[in-house]
Amino acid sequence: MARNELIEKTLVDAMDYARTFLHTGKVATYIPELAKGYPDKLGACVITTDGEIYSAGDWHQEFTIQSISKTLTLIMALQTAGYDRVFSKVGVEPTGDAFNSLVRLETKNTHPLNPMINAGAIATADCCMDSKDPSGDFLTLTRKLCRRDTIHLDEAVFQSEKKAGMRNRSMAYLMQGDNILEHDAEDVVDLYFWMCSLSVNVEDLANYALILANNGVDPRTGETLLEDWIVRIVKTLMVTCGMYDASGEFAMKVGIPAKSGVGGGIMGTVERKMGLAAFNPALDPKGNSVGAYRVLEYLSHYLGLHYFSGSGYTV
User: Can you tell me the distance from the alpha carbon of 193 to that of 97, in angstroms, rounded to the nearest whole number?
Assistant: First the structure.
C-alpha cells in the first residue's frame, strides 16, 4: 500500500511547529537523573492500522517511560487482580490536583482518585505484587505491546528515583496505614519506580498505542494481545486523567486518549486509525512535554483526529 503523503507532510510540519515552543519548557529536576535531558530533543512516530510507520526527528532517542507506565500498570493489575479488587483500591474520577499531590489522601478521600496519578499508580502496583515475578512480568508485557524485545531498565534513573522518591514513599505509607496497600510499602514503591524507569522510544510507544487504538488486537498480525474490556477502561482513563491536571484542556485542543510522562513522552491513540507518540524533555508547569503536546495538537488539527471531528484524513 502506498504511503500516505498527507500524514508524511503533516508530521514534518508538526515538528517545525513544535520546535517554536521548546524554549518555553524546562526538563524535570525533582528526579536528578532526568535533569540531564536535552530540552531541544524532539521526535515523533505515527503507525497506522495498515502497518505504515512515519517517523521524524529524534524518533530513535530513548527516554524513560515514567508515567506512561501507569497505563501498563493498570493493565497488569486488571489482569492479575481483576476489576473489583483494583477499583476497591483506586477510583476513576479526574483530579484538579497535581499528579504528586498528597492532599486528597490526607484530608478528603482515603483512596486515590484515579490510577493515572502517582498515588493511584502505587495502589495499582500493589495489585501487581500478587504476581510471582512482578517486575519480570511487567517487562514482558511492555515488550510485547511495544513490539521490541530489547526494552530494558534504565538503572541510573531507577536509582535516582529511589533516592529522591520520598514523596511517593509518603503516599505509600499513608495508604498502607489505611489498609489500601496489602504489601509492604517499600516493596510496592520500589516496583512503581522500576516500572517508571524502563527505557523506550517513540516507535515503541506508537506500537503500544496502535494496539490500544485497535481494541487490543494487533492489526498487522490479527493477534489479540489484550482483552477489549481492559483496553476500554485504560482508554477512558487516558481521556479523563491521562494528561494530569491539564486533561480537560488536552481533550478540547487535541481530543484523543493520551498519556504523558515527565521523561518527555506523550502517547496517543486514534480509534481504529493509528497509534502515535512524541518526545521532548522540556516540560510545562503541569509536567507535560511542551514539544510532544504541540506535535499531537498539530497532527490532530490538520489530520482531523479529534474524537468529535466530523472529518479526518483518508488512508
Answer: 21
